[in-house]
Amino acid sequence: MDHLFWHDRWQKNAIGFHQEEINPQLQEFWPGLKLPPSSAVFVPLCGKSRDMLWLHERGHEVIGVEISAIAARDFFAENNLTPKVTTRGRFEHWECERLKILVGDFFELETSQLSEVTGIYDRASLIALPPVMRKRYAEHLATIVPKAAEILLVTLEYPEAQMEGPPFPVGEAEVRQLYEPHYRVAPLHAKDVLAENPKFRERGLSALTERVYRLTPSGNF
Questions:
Q1: 139 phi and psi, to 5 degrees?
Q2: Whole-model pTM over 0.90
Q3: Quick check: 37 and 57 in contact, CB under 8 A?
Q4: Helix, strand or coil for residue 59?
Q5: What is the total count of domains within the chain?
Q6: Looking at the domain assignment, is residue 18 inside a domain?
Q7: What is the DSSP letter of 129?
Q8: Would residue 86 count as lying in a domain?
């Protein structure tokens, strides 16, 4: 899975992973992180997620990263926002009212670009990546965000043989393997969501569980 895969998905509007509604688990569990309202939040592989608007409405500065300029364009257009677009280094910066999407490769992000971040929201990032990329993703994320930043992670689990991702199934054992070198992993929630996602039933799934984790830095950096 490379850049061309995601560019092709956005060009064809094959974005079944996009949710029109604000994720209910974000609304329920984000307040538990107790982050200062004005603090900066990082949303990796953000697409055009409306969850960024919800975080922004709570007072946060929101920084997303996304490989597709189509996604950034659509996010601002669909929410009636007019961004300022500039190029700095390897990234295009699409910015408006403390909402910013960095258009470029997540793996090229550096600590200086996220130095003010206090929280990370990952609903569709880890599960967007195949197994061979997830370890690299988790390691890079831990490297580029401030060591005190907490993560709210939302994953999906389903019988792997029944559907070809993305999104990919990621179980609790893998979450712990990926993150426990640097974070304490606390499961917060698990819910069967297949009935709420008929498109996945149509793709052949017999079960679909959404799980939520809070990842708190352990000091092992």
A1: -65, -40
A2: yes
A3: no
A4: coil
A5: 1
A6: no
A7: S
A8: yes
